[in-house]
Fold:
Amino acid sequence: MNKDKKSSVTFKGNKDGLLVLCDEKASWDEILDTLKECLQGKKGNFFEGARVMVDLGTRTLKSEQAQALWYIMEKNGLQIKSIKTGTDSNKREISRREGREIDVDTENGDATNQLPTLLIKRSMRSGQNITFDGNIIIFGDVNPGAEIKATGFILIMGDLRGTVHAGATGDEKAWVAALHLQPTQLRLAGLIATAPQEEPMLPELAQISEGMIVVKQLKKSTNHIDFNRGD
Amino acid sequence: MGEVIVITSGKGGVGKTTTTANIGTALASMDKKVVLLDTDIGLRNLDVVMGLENRIVYDLVDVTHGNCRLKQALIRDKRFDHLALLPAAQTKDKTAVNTEQMFKLCQQLKEDYDYVLVDCPAGIEQGFKNAIAGADKALVVTTPEIAAVRDADRIIGLLEAAELPSPKLIINRIRPDMVKTGDMMDINDMIDILAIELAGVVPEDQTIVISTNKGEPAVLDVNSKAGQAYRNIAKRIMGEDIPLMSFEVDETIFSKFKKLMGFKS
Ligand SMILES: Nc1ncnc2c1ncn2[C@@H]1O[C@H](COP(=O)(O)OP(=O)(O)O)[C@@H](O)[C@H]1O
Ligand SMILES: [Mg+2]
Structure:
């Protein structure tokens, strides 16, 4: 039993931070227990301050699970840099340092349809970053100094004032929507835009149209909101 | 059993030390037993602001390293018997103390005092971790500048992660005239971003500079507007329902503030 637990999570350090590999076959509870065991209770633990990349293999995360993972990490002084889930790691490897396209699966013309979605039920404050191989939905604000990066779409049920990058591996169909779209910087695939001067009053959607980032009012009928969850 | 309140900000020079000295003195003037804890090791100045510099024999590091007993290191205030200061060490660096030692020290202090106010150093490194280690509550100080608000936001995120939730905000150095002309961030904008409760607003006030140089906290000066603001914050900390002063209000905020106010646990 104990032996199984130990092997359900593997820690690997590299120059970008700490890679946490979670066994696809282990149960979620087992993984959380192992993480707690390895990190918790030890003030000034070995990994404190590390930037963590969590790789969950083909597993997909429910929002509660992502919350729990995040909570354990932050509580022990680790910062989540990215979570990789629901992906075939051989096929979709992100080059995180360059943020360049490598191999995005666009069989149906819209990669966001096939990606897992990470739900974040809190605001993102300055200095808090998340990178996710999939779509991100945030129930809260994204403050200046926070950075959100997704390979799919990003939907913010709150004020967007920080930096976001949707379609981070080059998907030009990716979009960003927010109740209040005032980003420090907004990127879609390889394009970059900053917020216009006037404050938006209504929810808006940013997407690429004819090679440019175009912002328009978010309508109820929009057919871009497509939540094909991975789980 | 008292409570430990850490005064923090992220950015330096926004008024943490000023705030600690003034709120502490105000609480003491209302008959609370208060101890001020300077954790800004290497850059201590709470003792100067309190006018107690020449009484220092032992410091925080002496206490945590067992060079003296806690009681020996506590300096009694000139004005109030039940107000004390534990000064920071000047010659060591921030790693001379760890979070466990700080936690124990705070536990020990709150047995004897109603309020333990911890003056936090700037930054988010070891000094910050030490300062929050034993805290029950947090006050975040900011000035109406984008960089200060950004750092306050960062700090609030870290406090939440450290399970010190719902910190209260103090906005320092507001200039109502500049807010009116649109040259300064207004209070609403700051609360909108930071999304935490307001503990109070302190105006830019030259009596702060004068009182700091004299080693007499501004709350002791009945004519000081900043002193008045700090007295109000101290009352809110004690659970009193004190409305904003006129200079704290920029018209539109008043109704909104009603909802935000209160410092109850
Ligand atoms: N409300 C105020 N009005 C005028 N000067 C102020 C005010 N608050 C702080 N100051 C001045 O700002 C400087 C920095 O304050 P301090 O409390 O030492 O900041 P911190 O501890 O955050 O570094 C000091 O010189 C102080 O006198
Ligand atoms: Mg200071």
The two ends of chain B are 14 Å apart (CA to CA). The pocket of adenosine-5'-diphosphate (ligand 1) is lined by residues B 9, 12-18, 172-173, 202, 204-205, 208-209, 212, 226 (CB under 6 Å). Confidence is low (pLDDT under 50) at residues 254-265 of chain B.
